[in-house]
């Protein structure tokens, strides 16, 4: 009895707060741009690469800093803007674009490194929001906060709803406490043209679901761009505006791009985007299932379960992918005796008639048991869906390590564990080196563990130093990874293991 009373007492102290609706005072939405940007709310701005998402966001920011006019002619309340970008350099990109847009630069706060007792480190929105909020206590007029890309705020797997919601909620809470709009910039999933725009945002559907307003951009053949309102839980959705990007002389021999707003557009975002993307995508092989599959397999075999998972994320069904597989002549091969199935292009399959597996495949991928029966393949892969593939590199896991088909987060953990000590020699945070290389692999369509299986500690240290001193721009890394993959596939890889294997043969 006493224990029950104590339990009830604790529940009364720690219980859920219940408030009668009659005690809650109704409040109107506080708009920065009526119908488009609201204080205290999360917004997502997404679009394909090259549509001018960041430039458009900075143009909106500039309008706020000077109390200028929005594209519809209404006047913005003046305020400060907070900008964090993990992709663009403030000195040569962000500030020049803000200046070209006519921003009051004194009202723009650029998020830099996080200061610690040891040494400064790159700002990490997934863990530094509290520190950022403390710094912002001196300002009472922050009206807009830009996070580019918003996926950086996610500490876990950006494709899992629970982890995305858990990671984004602190960002939402910060916007509410500061009474500012939060604008997170993201990309469209490749090959998703024609789908509902809110479902095209890269990663979990939680990005679009948690945001109160989702804005999308698109680019037409004539260079005109479109900003459309794909979703609004707090007002009217649909409609949009045309805009163009122009190069402006900002002085000092420098130019920067800025937005010129055009006419208003009516209709749903899906209708608005379909008009421009239909023409743009006709010649793009990645917009159909066959082209999408070809891009996935062009650098080597991929586990079937992984292929189908990525296809579903991109908006294709399993049936579509099986039809696409037959269309491009791809075949399925067995990943060892106990492994699942992998898909590969026919040219690689012809090479597998040799006595040993082709170098584009991890050793352990069988050159026999080529499958043409999708039901058998699916059945076996489904049975193994709860565990990683057991395919192993030739050295039994040594330098190359296990080639496992689980999440990028798991791959990252294994790679970091392997290269952590080497990374300490690099003149930058070793996690940034590894993350940069993993991101480059992803952009290049190369499995990170396959690529890292052909890199040693010295390679990683060298990449890190080159990234740190600027001799290797980050945007060149995907090309390096594609070259590495092509060298592996052609049997020309220069890593010590591959050279040793060629020497033995």
Descriptive report:
- This protein is α/β, with parallel strands linked by helices.
- The protein folds into 3 domains: 31-281, P-loop containing nucleotide triphosphate hydrolases (Rossmann fold), CATH 3.40.50.300; 288-391, no CATH class; 392-505, no CATH class.
- Helices cover 39% and strands 16% of the residues.
- It contains 18 helices and 14 strands.
- The strands form 3 sheets. It has a 9-stranded mixed sheet with strand order 5-4-6-7-3-8-9-10-11. Strands 12-14-13 form a 3-stranded antiparallel sheet.
- α2 (53-66) crosses α3, α13 crosses α14 and α14 (430-444) packs across α16.
- The longest helix has 18 residues, at 161-178.
- It is globular, with a radius of gyration of 25 Å.
- It starts with a helix and ends with a helix.
- Mean pLDDT is 76; it is low at 280-287, 348-406 and 421-428.
Provide a quick synopsis of the model.
By secondary structure, this protein is α/β, with parallel strands linked by helices.
Q: Tell me the Rg in angstroms.
A: 25 Å
How many discrete domains? 3
Which residues form runs of ≥5 with pLDDT under 50?
280-287, 348-406, 421-428
What is the percentage of strand-forming residues?
A: 15-25%
Q: What portion of residues is helical?
A: 25-40%
| CATH homologous superfamily classification of the largest domain | P-loop containing nucleotide triphosphate hydrolases
- Strand arrangement, major sheet: 5-4-6-7-3-8-9-10-11
Structural class: alpha/beta
Arithmetic mean of pLDDT: 76
Judging from the principal axes of the Cα atoms, what is the shape? globular
Number of strands: 14
The CATH architecture assignment of the largest domain turns out to be 3-Layer(aba) Sandwich
CATH topology of the largest domain: Rossmann fold
Name of the CATH first level of the largest domain: Alpha Beta
The tally of helices reads 18
Biggest sheet features: 9 strands, mixed
Span of the ends, CA to CA: 79 Å
């Amino acid at each position: 009895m006493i224990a029950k009373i104590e339990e009830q007492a604790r529940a009364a102290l720690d219980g859920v707060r219940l408030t009668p609706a009659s005690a809650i005072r109704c409040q109107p939405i506080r708009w920065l741009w009526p119908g488009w940007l609201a204080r205290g709310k999360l917004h997502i701005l997404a679009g394909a690469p090259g549509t001018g998402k960041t430039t458009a966001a900075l143009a909106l920011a500039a309008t706020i800093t000077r109390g200028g006019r929005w594209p519809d002619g209404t006047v913005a309340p003046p305020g400060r803007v907070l900008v964090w970008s993990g992709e663009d350099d403030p000195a040569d990109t962000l500030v020049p674009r803000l200046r070209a847009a006519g921003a009051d630069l004194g009202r723009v706060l650029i998020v830099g490194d996080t200061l610690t007792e040891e040494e400064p480190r790159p700002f990490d929105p997934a863990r530094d929001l509290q520190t950022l909020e403390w710094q912002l206590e001196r300002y009472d007029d922050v009206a807009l906060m830009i996070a580019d890309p918003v996926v950086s705020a996610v500490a876990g797997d950006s494709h899992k709803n629970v982890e995305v919601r858990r990671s984004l909620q602190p960002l939402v809470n910060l916007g509410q406490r500061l009474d500012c709009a939060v604008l997170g910039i993201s990309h469209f999933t490749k090959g998703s043209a024609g789908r509902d725009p809110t479902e095209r945002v890269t990663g979990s559907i939680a990005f679009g679901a948690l945001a109160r307003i989702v804005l999308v951009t698109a680019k037409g053949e004539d260079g005109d761009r479109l900003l459309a309102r794909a979703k609004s839980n707090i007002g009217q959705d649909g409609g949009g505006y045309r805009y163009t990007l122009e190069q402006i002389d900002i002085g000092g021999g420098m130019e920067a791009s800025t937005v010129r707003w055009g006419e208003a557009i009516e209709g749903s975002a899906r209708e608005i985007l379909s008009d421009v993307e239909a023409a743009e995508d006709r010649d793009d092989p990645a917009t159909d299932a066959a082209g999408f599959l070809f891009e996935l397999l062009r650098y080597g075999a991929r586990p079937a379960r992984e292929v189908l998972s990525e296809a579903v994320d991109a908006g294709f069904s399993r049936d579509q992918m099986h039809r696409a597989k037959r269309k491009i002549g791809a075949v399925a091969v067995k990943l060892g005796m106990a492994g699942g199935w992998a898909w590969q292009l026919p040219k690689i399959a012809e090479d597998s008639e040799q006595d040993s597996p082709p170098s584009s495949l991890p050793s352990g991928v069988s050159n026999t048991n080529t499958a043409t029966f999708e039901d058998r393949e699916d059945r076996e892969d489904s049975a193994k869906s709860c565990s990683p593939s057991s395919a192993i590199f030739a050295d039994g896991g040594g330098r190359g390590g296990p080639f496992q088909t689980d999440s990028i987060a798991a791959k990252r953990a294994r790679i970091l564990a392997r290269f952590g000590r080497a990374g300490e020699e690099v003149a930058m945070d070793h996690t940034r080196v590894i993350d940069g290389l993993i991101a480059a692999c992803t952009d290049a369509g190369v499995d990170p563990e396959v690529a890292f299986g052909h890199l040693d500690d010295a390679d990683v240290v060298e990449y890190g130093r080159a990234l740190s001193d600027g001799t290797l721009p980050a945007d060149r890394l995907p090309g390096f990874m594609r070259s590495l993959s092509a060298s592996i596939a052609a049997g020309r890889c220069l890593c010590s293991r591959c050279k040793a294997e060629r020497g033995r043969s």
